[in-house]
Amino acid sequence: MKVKICGIRDMKTAEFAIEAGADAIGFVFAESKREISIEEARKITASLPDKVLKIGVFVNETKDVLERTFEEVGLTHLQLHGDESPEFCRSIRYPVIKAIRVMSNEDLRTIPQYDCEYILLDSPYGKYRGGNGTTFDWNLLKEIEIQKDKLILAGGLTIDNVLEAIDLGKPGMVDVSSGVETNGMKDHSKIGDFIKKVKGGGKVNDNLYTSR
After folding, report:
1. Which part of the chain is the N-(5'phosphoribosyl) anthranilate isomerase (PRAI) domain (predicted)?
2. Could you give phi then psi for residue 17, rounded to 5 degrees?
3. Architecture of domain 2-211
4. Which of 41, 76, 100, 127 is the most buried (most CB within 10 A)?
């Protein structure tokens, strides 16, 4: 099971997450309390291993800005969290993750229209499009038809509910942001514990919590 830590804004947290076992790092370029500049994101990606997915999160951005940011930052994927159409996603020349907010089965029926590298299922919009710390009805996931390794599950995940979400949705990756924060800031201890929980209780180096 892969883990994405989203909303990264500093080098130390990115490095900690990777050392703790994260497979993907997310940078938010849309309006958000976790928004990061292109310059800062580029500094972070330059220090990360090649095997780590570097994902940029955008909302209703132009194709030109998406592709230019991909190149300037050194991303591996573009996560589109707005109202982007299947045709728009296909027009992007770099790997796309299409985020779909889930309120009912009707939303899940749109999945086959998107032939993207990944589909991310998230909770309905709050103040921002993502990262609001709310869940959706994971029981809906029992009926969806999708190659499971292409499914990313997000929305209100925490160390307390992530195993239930995985059991119901069988995703290839889980995506967490607010669930590993304390007072709006990424919490290294919570990141380590979350990754350990998802990956089956494998030991996380205790020194990680004291070395940063």
Report:
1. 3-196
2. -60, -40
3. Alpha-Beta Barrel (3.20)
4. 41
User: Left, alpha or beta for 4 (phi > 0: left; psi -120 to 50: alpha)?
Assistant: beta
Which tokens go with 170? 């069988």
In the numeric block, which tokens belong to residue 198? 């998802």
pLDDT tens figures, 10-24 = 999 999 999 999 999
Tell me the two tokens of residue 42.
Answer: 């580029």
Distances (CA, A) of 116 to 21, 111, 112, 196: 25, 10, 10, 29
Name the residues annotated as catalytic: 6, 122
- Token pair of 192 as six digits: 């380590």
Question: Is the separation of the CB atoms in 132 and 178 below 8 Å?
Answer: yes
| Global pTM value | 0.90
Whether residue 177 contacts residue 131, with contact meaning beta carbons closer than 8 Å, is answered with: yes
